[in-house]
Amino acid sequence: MAATEKRLPRDTFTKKLQRMCERLDGRSTQTLSFKHWYFDRTESATCTVTRLWVAGSYARGALECGDLDVVVNIDIQGSEPTQRLMMRAFFGAPAYVRCYSGTPEKNSSGIALPNAVSIWTGPGCDWREAIASISPDPSAGRAKRPIDAIPFRTEQLGTYVDRMEEVLKLRRKGLIEWSFIPFDEKLLAPIEPGGFLESEARVERFIEHELAGRGILRLLHPLTKLMRKLEPGGSWHSAHGARTKIRCGGTLLYLGKPGLPIHRLDGNATLQQIGIVPHISTRGPNGVWLIRRGRNHADMIALSKVRAFYLVSGGSPTIIHWNHFEDGRRHSGKVLELFRTYEKAIAGAKHWKKLASSEGEAKDFDANEVRGADLLFLTSLCDVIEVGSAGIAVTHAGRVLTGQDEVSTISEVVVSLTGESEPQGLE
Question: What InterPro entries does the annotation carry (predicted)?
């Protein structure tokens, strides 16, 4: 886990634990009313806390802790409320406290907590003595777990421990790789009014229109600054109704409390990486977790054979804006022309220079080479790849323009560029 996680003195959590026990002494049974998660009706339940344990680094006596892990066993009569509703009813919402329902052996954290210490066992119990029985230990710290290799805390992500462990296995196999970029003060500083570029401002307006929370809007400022470096020239866009999923160039960003949609990388010819970006929090870590294909990923094996050429004008790849009218509607997209040989690229450069000259423009076109995974930067800029007379749709907009039934995968793009009947190295 990133070193940016904030830790607090042990005494801070002792006071929180004492307050939780005092609340249970005062009222260990709550009657709750709540809306059914699906049907339009009100449900009710009588919930009784029967036992409370403290776990984690506090239970081991650590002098500094990142949070207070508490396991609460609750007897429920009636419909079952959400864990969040129950914990708020009994304890409010104390900061830096993580409450799990169940027992140390089996609880909502998804992992066993064998070192948990029993603190509250019922009204009138001596919980003060139980807390005092845990001796501070300067050598104690946070227990290391395999998932600590993941940059964010489990509660920052909308996924489960087994999914996180699965992602770690993919990394060990070389199928994915990642990096973590923390948000420093410079990145977190708000962009001045009017400082957003056109596509950046469009995404901001869209998210505001979709009624996203302030937490999502707050992420746009550091992300905008970061993407200007990682995706120079990349435009921002977001699908309607997906205010927590936005894209800039070849980077797809999941915001708020994201899952781990690693499958999005498979075959996607316009996607270089996905970015996992939880809400900014006081405790942290705060930043962007960038996940890419690893060296052993089938797409990377296929791309390793790619050697192609493209045209550059004014220092930027030459992208053709294509408009197509059908059934009274205008469909538009971006086309990137690729060449299998340098000679064909030079011939293409001469053609485009002549065409620009005939329209009164003085433009020079140069041929640049692209190899391997660098191709993903180019394909992230377009909807259609044109190789010779063939148009290859790599987005849904490109599919509409070309009339193709499906969006082409990376392996299909490689076949078109190499002329091979089957991409070697793919399973």
Answer: NT_sf
